[in-house]
Amino acid sequence: MFLIVFVIGGPALRWSHPTGHNMSDYRRYFVAGGTYFFTCVTHERRPILTTDLGRKCLHEAIEKVRTDHPFQIVAIVLLPDHWHTVWTLPRGDDRYPLRWMRIKEEFTERWLEAGGAETAQSESREKHRQRGVWQRRYWEHTVRDEADLKRCVDYTHWNPREHKLAARVRDWEWSSFDRMVREGEYDIDWGGTDPTPGWDDPEWGE
């Protein structure tokens, strides 16, 4: 499955399981000032990300940027018009805006070169040399502690159900959920109810 390769590209992720506990030790992935939850949305919410071309371009863009500016993908989900992801940056490194700028640029270049379409631009966007592929900004949440990290990861994996794109979390193939099931983080039938009720901030869009 293409996105699973993309999700675990680079150093393998491992989740520890302390004796006597039935959940992972999120301290291993939480880095103060360096763990973040993001939402990124396509321009005019065009459903391009889960197409074959969209997945290919995003995979290549992320891997190119990770080579130049390393970061760890803790969790990710790809929906037709947006994606959520949780990253841990190297300790002392807070340059996620650079990484997002480069991912958008790399994706856009590949998308357009392969014949992907873009939307018509307003005069303002043309003035700022923006292409009709991504919304200009993205949503960011700095993860505060291990409990907050779990909330962000759970939200990420439950999101296809939130949007009624899958009857079960396990049915949505473009996320890191399957990997985390294999690593013991989730039961395969997890996600029968909303794990973060009332938290709508990540459903951001300009």
Task: Report on the architecture of this protein.
Helix content is 33%, strand content 12%. The protein is an alpha+beta fold. It has a single domain, classed as Alpha-Beta Plaits (2-Layer Sandwich), CATH 3.30.70. It has a 4-stranded antiparallel sheet with strand order 2-3-1-4, with helices on one face. Strand 2 and strand 3 (82-88) form a beta hairpin.
Question: What is the C-level CATH assignment?
Answer: Alpha Beta
Instruction: Write the CATH fold name.
Output: Alpha-Beta Plaits
Question: SSE string, helix = H, strand = E?
Answer: HEHEEHHEHH
Largest sheet, in brief, is: 4 strands, antiparallel
CATH architecture assignment = 2-Layer Sandwich
The secondary structure category is alpha+beta
Care to count the β-strands?
4
Question: Summarize this, please?
Answer:
33% of the residues lie in helices and 12% in strands.
Considering the chains and any ligands shown, give keywords for the structure.
4-stranded antiparallel sheet, alpha+beta, 206 residues, single chain, globular, 6 helices, Alpha-Beta Plaits
Layout of SSEs?
Blueprint: H1 2-7, E1 35-41, H2 52-68, E2 72-78, E3 82-88, H3 96-113, H4 123-127, E4 139-142, H5 146-162, H6 177-182
Helix pairs in contact: 2-3
